[in-house]
Design goal:
3 copies of one chain form a homotrimer. By secondary structure, chain A is α/β, with parallel strands linked by helices. Chain A has one domain: TIM Barrel, CATH 3.20.20.70. In chain A, 43% of the residues lie in helices and 14% in strands. Chain A is built from 10 helices and 8 strands. Chain A has an 8-stranded parallel β-sheet. In chain A, α1 runs parallel beside α2, α5 runs parallel beside α7 and α9 runs parallel beside α10. The longest helix of chain A has 15 residues. Chain A is globular and about 55 Å long. Chains A and B meet through α1 and α10 of A and α1, α2, α3 and α4 of B.
Chain lengths: 256, 256, 256
């Protein structure tokens, strides 16, 4: 039972939340999951951070996340480095050994045809991983060449190949690519992506309250949000539930 | 005994500090209070965050805060939602059940006459809670209608009704309302409020060093500061004590 | 063995990293060192924060840092206050009692001739401390009077007097002094300092990714970086190792 459940009614909190773990301690993860685990859907061990941490520590954290019912995967950059070094199969095996149940497949830094990307997605699905496919480029000058319909087209192919979610690349800050455009343009492009891919499949990287608020008001509290720092997981859930000034009164109560 | 107490003299650190807890783990709170508890006066469980956390976890944290001699209360937004749902009495009872010893009463989102607000304050005092009354609006367009003398007038009524402290609303960022005005205007309005209400009663929401420094230089190290993130509690205390460059040499040593 | 060591090759991570501890709990430090200790060279207990914390707690943290093979020292501001109060000898003794193995000597707030500064450095070396000497002023108006060749001249005297590292003052934010100048000027001044003092000896205060990235691209992954918040220690190490988009492909692999 939640605190204040008797005196304050709220709607059900929904929508996927991907937390960013860029080197948390196992002790913190253990405590955190008891407080906020139910408001997290998946955990990304940001970019290549896992590569620098002892195998035993990573495996222990992964186990805690999996036991809590979450997807857990390293950042797509790590997979891209393995691919660039010609070792995607070795990477899949090491994911397995460490206990990961999911993978992010992206082409933010390395060039990759959509056919190649779909092959990798299929290969990862075959091996039992839940696939998070990211679309977009880390470098803004390469990103700007992609049109919303290019992004939608590629995302839908990723979904057909087996991806569970498709993520719009915006970096740790959530301020690159379409997420970094000025507001009118941003809303136009994101709306086109949501329309083309479906609100259930698409995820936006949005670590900050203002970004999350804009997405929730535009697309509803069930919009999928990624790159959420641990200390913002509960705050984001309050935005979804109408428990913060921004969305108070804007989110309908259950069954009313 | 403190570290470096023998070789470095400092003045007594004074002034109330309200820490913002937006979902901390009980394990963190336990460790934190041993390091920094004496520099905290009260803890606000930000806006509606407590509503999403297990009753047992909230009660356990509240107990630790109360045992450390601190006031602890949920954000005023949670009370406002209970009031909007017609359940202020139920809210008071649930505060009691969970062990809270204080309450924040605000009208940042819902319209409320000052008479109604004072009634609620009296009611909460009757039930034994220490009352933190917040003045100001969450939405800047509603806030800007209030003059400094309106704010002072309402604050003084809150104090007469039993409020221990009155807080100038500025949101988590400390950048809304008069705290968000350009500097000359900000200083003018805050000075009027301090003059009208008294430095002991009024609190400013100021999470950032620059904001805290400005308040300390203008109103002295004993100014009351709210919305302080846990990791800024010790840094704020160093500003008050002249242990940081900004205030070094500006804060008089005890008895000298 | 590190996670993903079998499938992803990276170069050796090098360069000194000074972490900023502004009031961490001993419990956090214990967990943190197991995850990231090997990517830290030294820990600074920021400015005067240690003065407000119980002696036993500070001593316990210092012991953990020393046991992990790290240098640990309070911020130079604390030493400056002791000096201004005429008690440098008492300060050295208290450092000893608390278990510190290093000291920061700066003149950011108090005026000090370079001869006096070198005397203090020699005195601290004599007593067995590793010396981190900081150059530059806390107040921008005093800082701007120093030319790059003044800074280099003073730094080299500090090194001759026994300082292990010389730090370019930039405050907690890393945005004051030459680090806060516009880009062309910043690069010009920093390059002159590196050229004059040597890349092994000089340290830059750079808490943010963009600052760290600029330094790594300009001076190589082995550049010494200070004022790194705990949660940015692993991210900084990924930048050095080419495990993050910014530096992926820019950092050469070992022996290739």
């Amino acid at each position: 039972m939640k605190a204040f459940e008797k005196s304050v009614k709220i709607p059900k909190v929904d929508g996927a939340t991907v937390m960013l773990d860029k080197g948390l301690t196992p002790e913190f993860v253990e405590s955190f999951l008891k407080v906020a685990g139910e408001y997290v859907t998946a955990v990304k061990l940001g970019w290549g951070t896992a590569r620098l941490i002892d195998k035993e520590i990573v495996a222990r954290k992964v186990e805690m996340y999996v036991d809590a019912g979450l997807d857990v995967f390293p950042g797509g950059t790590l997979a891209e480095i393995a691919i660039a070094q010609g070792n995607f199969e070795g990477y899949l095996n090491e994911l397995d050994e460490l206990g990961f149940n999911a993978i992010e497949i992206s082409d933010g830094m390395i060039p990759m045809s959509i056919e190649k990307k779909c092959e990798l997605i299929e290969r990862a699905c075959e091996q039992g991983f839940t696939v998070y496919a990211e679309e977009g480029k880390k470098r803004d000058e390469e990103y700007s060449v992609l049109s919303p319909s290019d992004i939608v087209g590629r995302m839908n192919k990723c979904v057909e190949a087996g991806a569970e979610y498709v993520i719009v690349e915006a970096r740790e800050s959530g301020k690159h690519g379409p997420m970094g455009a000025e507001k009118r343009e941003r809303v136009r492009v994101l709306s086109e992506i949501v329309k083309g891919v479906g609100i259930q499949r698409v995820m936006f990287e949005a670590p900050e309250k203002e970004q999350q608020f804009e997405l929730i008001v535009k697309f509803g509290p069930e919009v999928n949000i990624a790159n959420v720092p641990p200390e913002e997981v509960i705050p984001l859930a309050t935005l979804r539930a109408g428990l913060r000034a921004e969305t108070m009164g804007r989110v309908a109560l259950d069954g009313e």
